[in-house]
Known about the structure:
Number of strands: 0
Strand content: under 5%
Distance between the termini: 34 Å
Amino acid sequence: ISTGLMLMRIHHRVDASFALLLMLVAIALPGFTGHSAAAASHWLASTTMIAHLVSMNLWVGGVLLLLVVEQRVTLRSFSALALSCYIVILLSGVANLVTRVGDWNAFWGNPYALVLAAKAVLLLVLGALGSRQRSRVVAAATDDAVAGAVARVLAIEVTVMLTAIALAVVLARMANP
């Protein structure tokens, strides 16, 4: 809501640049103070967490925005950004996990691993949905009949994304493996 209110007040590029900087700082701060701050390789853990958080916010925010704006106009350009965000989220998540886990044998018996596995499955589902969107829907997005299909797939994506975010909150509250 606060982001929406801020965006309504933007009238110039300087305003937009300042708003973007402010949002990026707000997104990045938890990467310096969460579990990553306690990791053995603090720099790598913090950097990968910040990349994870920024990419996730761009992707989820973009999908939410596509639900309320004309998708046919923005879907093609957003699709490339979404793919980039997906790749960064995947790679940064794996890198961050590697920095957190001290004993892999103990990790597999930890409830943290089960929550993380559920989150990974959701990420794979999102990748499959995104691939379907890119291969079938983006090419035909100018067709009025496709607009309804785009909205339905985006709604499913948002539901899966919010579930993954809920699991991320659970992971953040759990002790490092």
